Amino acid sequence: MTEQLNRDLLQRWDQEDELAGFREQFHLPDNLIYMNGNSLGVMPRQALARAQDVVGREWGNDLIRSWNINHWIDLPQRLGNKIARLVGADEGEVIVCDSTSVNLFKLAAAAVRMQPGRSKIISEPGNFPTDLYVLQGVEQFSDGRVQLHTVEREQLFDAIDEDTAVVVLTHVHYKSGSMFDMAALTARAHEKGALILWDLSHSTGAVPVDLNGVGADFAIGCGYKYLNGGPGAPAFLFVARRHQATLQQPLSGWFGHANPFAMRDDYEPAPGIERTLCGTTSVIGASVLEVGVDLMVAADMTKVRAKSVKMGELFIALVEQRLQGLGFTLVSSKDSAQRGSQVSLRHEQGYAIMQALIARGVIGDFRAPDILRFGFTPLYLRYVDIWDAVEVLADIMARGEWQSSEYQVRTKVT
Amino acid sequence: MTEQLNRDLLQRWDQEDELAGFREQFHLPDNLIYMNGNSLGVMPRQALARAQDVVGREWGNDLIRSWNINHWIDLPQRLGNKIARLVGADEGEVIVCDSTSVNLFKLAAAAVRMQPGRSKIISEPGNFPTDLYVLQGVEQFSDGRVQLHTVEREQLFDAIDEDTAVVVLTHVHYKSGSMFDMAALTARAHEKGALILWDLSHSTGAVPVDLNGVGADFAIGCGYKYLNGGPGAPAFLFVARRHQATLQQPLSGWFGHANPFAMRDDYEPAPGIERTLCGTTSVIGASVLEVGVDLMVAADMTKVRAKSVKMGELFIALVEQRLQGLGFTLVSSKDSAQRGSQVSLRHEQGYAIMQALIARGVIGDFRAPDILRFGFTPLYLRYVDIWDAVEVLADIMARGEWQSSEYQVRTKVT
């Protein structure tokens, strides 16, 4: 970033921004700069109307008939097919259901079952906690047949071997924002006969993903971050077509049956991606999620990525200019090709500084023990917002606001 | 039911009904008699406002801060403690999360793990399909350590033996409405050293349940039937306090961790019921569910049950009077003590008859191959509604309306 940065320049960037029109599709509270869309995306304006419609009309008036007349029965597939377009998957390869954690359990357990002679699940230490916890659950319930091995990312490539059943990695790291080379690691896994499962929670809607382009086997992802699906929105999962006919997943509930309403005693998995479903669709959550997905599908992911990269570079440049010598270090890679849509800083007073920032209306978040995270969501964040956020941060540091006792006590859960 | 039944008499019953006031708390579409609350409960009027509030204010305005200021973090426990009062459980023994199917997997797998020397899971044929399917999943992923045995209910008592790890039964049968003697079967399971897991999907909010009174080990239940929580509402589960410290469930996601936001690599289960949580709470669905739960908690379950029984007896008496010789047989028990809050009829033209009924505004449902189900929801159904429903049914039979070709083709999914 070589240009002389100032607020006027950034206003011009915003005026010239081809994605600027999306901002008015979102509800952005006054006096707030929201840099936490990597944790919980903001509310699309239409989401409120959609919530009213699914609750008041579809449930309230149409009641049980909505399974047919309002197409509740197809909701997981319909949404899945939309998300497929964001991650380089084909029709019938993605479906919306349950939570990211539950979906990881289904696919990790299924992957292990597809590899009867292999005993290793490989992941990395410091992966998003639920990924490691769920894999520990898969390990424990395998009664010793598979073991989870966590390998530092520098050694990952070499650690994937002929005994590896499945590699489970998060494409963009939740804390550092570091991004794996999905193509290289997928190729490596396949070279060794291993399967690979990508967690796209911090990728989908933020960085281009081409699951079929790289030949990925499985993926999971989150509905409430960059897809702006609402708090606790249903998640999604991907199974490459070539695996669908043989995939056996343990959570074999009735919505995964070939003919759920035949109400037979014996489970017979649906022929396609539907076999990964378990219980009844959370209709309200999925309906609200669809609004966010529709907005993301309407955006050009190439432009989203270009703006995201420019925002990240701008933030790093401003931090370097304005926060020199104040104890901040850059955690994320300076190389945009290795960074998702967030920048993380380390500071030993990270918790207190983030509380002070939030009190001033700049919402990022904190991840223990010392990480401040700032997410860039090109559909609703402006370049001037980044300028203003760094100004506030510099001011907090200059005034020592973070030293206030109210920011020191850790009362927040997230 | 010995009184001479007529519509005037039933209007008097409605006037004298102590639960009548609850009806106005629900949105009941015009010209509809809804006897399908056992499948999807109707919308409480406040549910629409609650949906608007959680979406528009809590998500839209407060965003990520809602985990703290709007208490999203405690939602599973808060709702669980309310539902506990409906099922005879104590504070900290019930929690709201995921779907009924997912929760069954967690607890059935955990129960099997608590019984290392025992190889049988016992259930009954014709149990609700998802229960059998999920248990088949537990069986399959145990690699031969446990097998599912389905035993006809007459032989169940004797089938529970020293090799039984866990008995999994649905308290009120989804199709017939038959109700198990929960106390007797729980005692029998314990006598043989087995654990017991009750599916309360068709019980909670419909019939009194006393989990701790009978000494039950585990239970699961549904949010969208008699709790009126909305389509695909989150489900709940119960773990008796005595089992909580040792319970290991396979879906060990981050919300089940002792300290989720410490973001450590190793899973450490939360000390209490929270260890059954997996992924992020579906906040919108759970918030809407709370409205239905609050209404049910406000009702006296003894009165709910008394009205439910009276409605069931009324329906059976009217069917006997008005539908003699038309091919209907009663599937549900005539003994109210053995029946939940629904009455099922068998008719070889059941599908077409139900379609004709629905077309005339009487909503029951059909379960293959030949069952018509009629649910009684004392909080919003009137005695005159039952009179009117049977009148319509008799009229449909007299006119042969069900023979219309449009009702013969099976296009409906549910």
From TrEMBL, chains A, B:
N6-(pyridoxal phosphate)lysine-modified residues are K225
**Which EC number(s) does the record attach to this protein?**
3.7.1.3
Q: Which cofactor does it need?
A: pyridoxal 5'-phosphate
Q: Which residues does pyridoxal 5'-phosphate bind?
A: T100, S101, F128, P129, T130, D131, T170, D199, H202, Y224, W254, T280
Provide the catalytic activity annotation: L-kynurenine + H2O = anthranilate + L-alanine + H(+); 3-hydroxy-L-kynurenine + H2O = 3-hydroxyanthranilate + L-alanine + H(+)
What UniProt keywords are attached to this protein's entry? Hydrolase, Pyridine nucleotide biosynthesis, Pyridoxal phosphate
**Which pathway does the protein contribute to?**
Cofactor biosynthesis; NAD(+) biosynthesis; quinolinate from L-kynurenine: step 2/3; Amino-acid degradation; L-kynurenine degradation; L-alanine and anthranilate from L-kynurenine: step 1/1
Cited InterPro entries: DegT/StrS_aminotransferase (IPR000653), Kynureninase (IPR010111), PyrdxlP-dep_Trfase (IPR015424), PyrdxlP-dep_Trfase_major (IPR015421), PyrdxlP-dep_Trfase_small (IPR015422)
Protein family membership: Belongs to the DegT/DnrJ/EryC1 family.
**What is this protein's function per UniProt?**
Catalyzes the cleavage of L-kynurenine (L-Kyn) and L-3-hydroxykynurenine (L-3OHKyn) into anthranilic acid (AA) and 3-hydroxyanthranilic acid (3-OHAA), respectively.
Subunit structure as annotated in this protein's UniProt entry: Homodimer.
Q: What is this protein called?
A: Kynureninase
The organism's taxonomy opens as: Bacteria, Pseudomonadati, Pseudomonadota, Gammaproteobacteria, Oceanospirillales
